[in-house]
């Protein structure tokens, strides 16, 4: 009887964890290229990478619940050999088709943390690493439960980029170019940085997007855990 009671306590202890796991779901990300040129989509930590020609079928990936630090972005100007080794003009992730790390600036980013807090997904578009292609990052099944829908960055920032921030294939953020605390929110500005003329330029083009690291108030979007998403390049 004693062993049975002990076993019961173990079962009761494990059961809430089981129910929690059973109540979480992977999210499907559908990534579509509407650009008039080929992009090499990248996704970490799930997905890796895939070439998407204009008009190609969307790429769908499954992202486990609880994933944080997730990113999706477009790479441009790539050239890979049959083994998946090469390089890209923008967004390169170590010279491989199948990314396992983040991309090189400039690149427009879709960022996410799934079931990150109180059963909510946190999503955003960031131009903190600069800009290479326009992007929408939206809940796939409408906006039910997503208070603000999803972020959009539809402007062609590259064509309007300040000369000092221009880069082949895109537009750099000031932190990448100048590496100063006031632009990077590091060092002496880690706790008190604010918008600059450069971040205001990006914000004016894409009001939904993160334009500098502390740009939280208008740039965080939330959806219920289990929501599926679509990322569209050149919407």
From TrEMBL:
Keywords: Antimicrobial, Disulfide bond, Fungicide, Plant defense, Signal. GO terms for biological process: defense response to fungus; killing of cells of another organism. This is Thaumatin-like protein. Residues 1-26 form the signal peptide. The keyword Disulfide bond applies. The lineage of its organism: Eukaryota, Viridiplantae, Streptophyta, Embryophyta, Tracheophyta. Belongs to the thaumatin family. SMART domains: THN (SM00205). It comes from Aegilops tauschii subsp. strangulata (Goatgrass). Pfam families: Thaumatin. Disulfide bonds join 35-234, 78-88, 93-99, 153-206, 161-171, 175-184, 185-193.
